[in-house]
């Protein structure tokens, strides 16, 4: 989905704010490229994902109150969950960080459990996407709301586990050459698997959905180092 299509029908001020956000992000990337470690990159991404967890709960509440799903907002949320959370963030963890931890024989069981939670998340996303195909159906509203709340809860718990149990160990256990390989791999995933400008696009989605669901504007936090 192109950014033009994504923002079709969105107010000029929101578009302007997305553009400002993207510009700020670019400036930040240039300023701090050398500073962020791979673990810090993942941690920054968690802060954005937490915002989407809040949006999912708000979407569930509104859908139940109105008796229908907002197919357009739902599609944007699915785009974020598939394109940013799964194709970018989960890929960095599953293809690079978790194997690096296994190679050091650190937190092997924990990385397996976290990988299973990623799969649980994928099942929730699949069910939400299916429900969005019939936005006026009571069964779809019920299914979406149930899955959205379950996924939001899973995401918060999952992120807390990674932030508090996995990342501190990774920071200590991974030698500098392994950290350098991680950083290179992260760049590759972004360039080859998710495309240029991906973070700016998905930050824009998070911002727009927060505004749509009446959240106070979130103080922008950088999500990536380049
Ligand atoms: Fe994860
Ligand atoms: Fe994560």
What are the salient characteristics of this protein?
single chain, 226 residues, mainly alpha, Four Helix Bundle (Hemerythrin (Met), subunit A), 80% helix, disordered N terminus, disordered C terminus, binds fe (ii) ion
Task: Outline the fold blueprint.
Blueprint: H1 3-6, H2 12-32, H3 38-66, H4 71-103, H5 108-131, H6 138-173, H7 176-194, H8 198-212
Bound molecules: fe (ii) ion (2 copies).
One fe (ii) ion binds next to helix 4, helix 5 and helix 6.
Largest sheet: none
- Domain count, please report it: 1
CATH homologous superfamily, by name?
Answer: nmb1532 protein domain like
Number of strands: 0
The set of bound ligands, ions and cofactors reads: fe (ii) ion
Number of helices: 8
Q: Which structural class should the secondary elements be placed in? A: mainly alpha
CATH second-level architecture: Up-down Bundle
Could you tell me how far the N terminus lies from the C terminus, measured between alpha carbons in angstroms?
23 Å
Radius of gyration: 18 Å
Q: What's the pLDDT, averaged over the residues?
A: 85
Helix content: over 70%
**Low-confidence parts:** 1-33, 220-226
The SSE string, one letter per element, is HHHHHHHH
CATH fold category name? Four Helix Bundle (Hemerythrin (Met), subunit A)
């Amino acid at each position: 989905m192109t950014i033009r299509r994504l923002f079709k029908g969105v107010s000029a001020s929101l578009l302007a704010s997305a553009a400002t956000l993207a510009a700020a992000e670019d400036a930040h990337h240039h300023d701090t490229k050398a500073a962020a470690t791979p673990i810090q990159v993942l941690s920054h991404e968690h802060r954005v994902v937490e915002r989407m967890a809040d949006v999912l709960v708000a979407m569930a509440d509104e859908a139940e109150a109105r008796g229908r799903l907002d197919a357009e907002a739902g599609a944007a949320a699915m785009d974020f969950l598939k394109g940013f959370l799964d194709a970018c963030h989960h890929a960095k963890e599953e293809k690079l960080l978790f194997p690096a931890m296994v190679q050091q024989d650190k937190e092997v069981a924990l990385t397996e459990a976290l990988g299973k939670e990623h799969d649980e998340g994928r099942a929730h996303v699949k069910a939400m996407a299916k429900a969005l195909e019939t936005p006026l159906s009571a069964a779809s509203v019920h299914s979406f709301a149930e899955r959205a709340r379950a996924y939001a809860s899973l995401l918060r718990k999952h992120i807390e586990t990674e932030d508090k149990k996995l990342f501190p160990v990774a920071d200590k256990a991974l030698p500098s050459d392994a950290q350098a390989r991680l950083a290179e791999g992260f760049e590759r995933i972004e360039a080859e698997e998710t495309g240029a400008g991906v973070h700016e696009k998905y930050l824009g989605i998070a911002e727009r959905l927060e505004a749509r669901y009446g959240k106070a504007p979130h103080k922008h936090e950088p999500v990536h180092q380049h």
